[in-house]
Amino acid sequence: MVRNRLDPETPDKKPQSTNTIKETSFKIWRLLLSIVLFISGIVIGLISSSHITITPNHSPSSLSSSFYNSYSIINHTSNPNHTTLNLNPSINPNINLNYDINPSFDNMVHPKEVIHSMSDDELFWRASMVPRINGFPFKRVKKVAFMFLTRGALPFLPLWERFFGGYDELFSIYVHTPPGFILNVSPDSVFFARQIPSQTRSGHQMVKRDGECKSRLEYVELREAPGVVCLSVLSAVIGLTLGNLACSVLCHMLHTCMRVYWGDVTMADAEKRLLANALLDFSNERFVLLSESCIPIYNFKTVYKYLTESVHSFVDSYDDPTRYGRGRYNRRMLPDIKLYQWRKGSQWFEMSRTLAVEIISDYKYYDLFRKYCHPSCYPDEHYIPTYTNMFLGPLNSNRTVTYVDWSLGGPHPANFGRENITVSFIQNIRNNGTECLYNSERTTLCYLFARKFDPSALDPLIDLSSEVMGF
What we know:
With 471 residues, the chain is α/β, with parallel strands linked by helices. 32% of the residues lie in helices and 13% in strands.
């Protein structure tokens, strides 16, 4: 009789162990099930995210905190042109300004570290807090916050270090770089450990620990950026532990999403993020926004005195009737922002603490720019100038303190390299025939900084800094 090959009585080949077969099958099924669950979790998160929207409820007019509303210098009424000043907060006559500050309290009002785990929404909320008591329970020395919004390294770092030398108690430094970039400086540099967290507005965090990438998924946002669809892969229900490969891929996607793009609303996001981080230090009184191509054209003492003694902020804000100004206005911003209120200005601002608090506390008007101001409308050129014009006009000088040369025309200013740097060149920037108002009086000292300088200009600038700029 011819036996079947599967007949157990067939003596031709010794059969495999039943336990081995079962164990192999179990491993295969477990692997397949893990893959299916992993893919399903991501798909569910992405699908559910497309239906999730968040409407922030943190505008200056809607904040319920009594201390904020009582101290705020502006009142957003139905008439957006009406500004009500309230400069007389309650005074505690028993406050002691002479005792030594408690270390834990000192760290709260003067954070030693700029690294934190707060999302942007948490950060802005924290930074918007304003004391109602007039005066401070510690000896407060006004500081100027120098905020560097960069695309990477700081080529003029040696020049800035000279500028800051000897004035450690009078300034703070904050650096915003692209995600993943590490500013390598020596521990004795004033720029050491001064990089602020660069993150999405939703505050998504993905941290790699012990070879694993753990993602705490809290919020979902799908947003188009130039050339890329940004995905913040989050889920309120499913917690996933991702393998190294998946972690690297998703982290790369998120880093792409968090990058700051020229002309995009992410540029204005970064500006507000710098302001909010600087506001955490209660001694910071003035706030200067600078780029990696900026240089100081006066010494620190001159800059400090000019800014801290000014009764106005220096936010460039003007009405441009051309297609590059009013032509960028979007009528869908009505009725909140009207055409005659629309303003344009340089993004390189300097402002007081009062203005900074108001800017980072605003969601209502900023969301209009997020929705309706896209290239060729640039939020970094229009949001702060327009908002300042609408609500904070009396506190602003409507000009910038950063010099730039637009004489060549085009979308970008002139760039200055090694061949341009001479004593007369710097003197011509400082005394270029411009007149302006400072504390309501006319002056020719209108600019404290200048841009746009090429890295090749560093050596000649250092060579003449002591002779011309005084440091």
